[in-house]
Amino acid sequence: MGVVVLKFGGTSVGNVERIKNTANRILDEKKMGNQVVVVVSAMGKTTDQLVTLAKELSSYPNKREMDMLLSTGEQVTISLLSMALAEKGHSAISFTGWQAGILTESVHSNARIIDIDQKRIINQLAEGNIVIVAGFQGVSTDGEITTLGRGGSDTTAVALAAALEAEKCVIYTDVTGVYTSDPRFIPQARKLEAISYDEMLELSNLGAGVLHSRAVEFAKNYQIPLEVCSSLERVAGTVIEEEVTVEKSLVVRGVAFEGDITRITIFGLKNSFQNLSSVFTTLANNNINVDIIIQNQTDGEDAYLSFSIKNDDLHDTSKILEDYQETLGFDHFEYEAGLAKVSIIGSGMISNPGVAAKMFSTLAEQNIMIKMVSTSEIKVSTVIEEQQMIKAVESLHTAFGLDLVAMK
Ligand code: ADP
Ligand code: ASP
Ligand code: MG
């Protein structure tokens, strides 16, 4: 009898009917003779509503208290789902993150899982119970409730699958799989039958919210077979695995995008050799995630430095730069909000030159100005005006032949 981990997102447990439907999907797995661990998100838009509530009271709410607040969302779902299963005659037990043994680093709002003590779950499974775990939360080494970052329930599921050596981990959501781009905004997006861990990792990191990127990291590191499919429609989903054999002809397999990006530019950075590292060490020590970095230094001149961050980090970043301006040794800084990042992803890029050039010419044809660029072996990212984001994604989707992917 194998362990399977099933994760149901917010829409899949958004109301009583959906919770009953989720209970049925769980029982299908149980009836196949599996030991079932279920991870759930908060119901519907609960997490967003809790964030709004907090923002009504405070512009920059304390991060510890935010974790305390947001972790309540998932607790509602675990208990209701457990009741729904009991009503259908099956014994289930709900666990919060700490009860499930999920230990995280001592960081609020975006903690990483560092260990899982799976004893309690294993004991419950051995007794025949379905175990339901609250996603997106854990307990830190100093006993505080932490959360794993928005979308973090996926990571709870995959981390549990790794700790329990599960046979599979299925992420049930409100779309039928991983698409070539977000189907909610890009009507011509096509479902992919399969995608590699590396490509999925880039897609997630670059804005495709269908999977939390740390979940993909765990899946790759522990070689966990991962599947994304719909909780409502019974159709084949997308498999995420090491090597993908289907749709090999696609050089680009996805277009990801994310708005709410700000570009910070630091002018007159003295002694850029030492100070460059000091700037980023200072930001990292304050948990600011810096994305694309561009530095420009001409002989004998002070350097200037640009980097992109999420809009949400602008307040903290500005404060840090003001506080450390003298220590870091620069003249002044400016910022530009209202930007977006649009990226193309595909492992076929490694062996096909000219992909970046085609991306730039496609954007140029649409009169879209590129403000920053970053590349890796399997992706090219550009920062552009947020107003032009969807137009950019649609034109790239067409230019790289993704409109023509056959849907199964
Ligand atoms: P859940 O609540 O189930 O975790 P999410 O909202 O976190 O659901 O993720 C599913 C959503 O991800 C979809 O509704 C879709 O709009 C979005 N999405 C973004 N990029 C993609 C993509 N490439 N393929 C599929 N869905 C995507
Ligand atoms: N409820 C959390 C969120 O909305 C975690 C999750 O759904 O994965 O971000
Ligand atoms: Mg999600």
Q: Could you walk me through the main structural features you see in this protein, from its secondary elements to its overall organization?
A:
The mean pLDDT is 94. 45% of the residues are buried. The radius of gyration is 22 Å and the shape is globular. It has 408 residues and is an alpha/beta fold. An eight-stranded mixed beta sheet has the order 3-6-2-1-9-11-12-10, sandwiched between helices. The protein has a six-stranded antiparallel beta sheet with strand order 14-15-13-16-18-17. A four-stranded mixed beta sheet has the order 5-4-7-8. It is built from eleven helices and 18 strands. Helix 5 runs parallel beside helix 7, helix 8 packs antiparallel against helix 9 and helix 10 (355-365) packs across helix 11 (389-399). Helices cover 35% and strands 26% of the residues. Bound molecules: adenosine-5'-diphosphate, aspartic acid (ASP) and magnesium ion. Residues 9-12, 41, 151, 173-175, 178-179, 181-184, 203, 208-210, 254 line the site of adenosine-5'-diphosphate. It is an enzyme of class 2 (transferase). InterPro entries: AceGlu_kinase-like_sf, ACT-like_dom_sf, ACT_Aspartokinase, ACT_dom, AKii-LysC-BS, Asp/Glu/Uridylate_kinase, Asp_kin_monofn, Asp_kinase. Substrate binds at residues 47, 74. One of its GO terms (biological process) is diaminopimelate biosynthetic process.
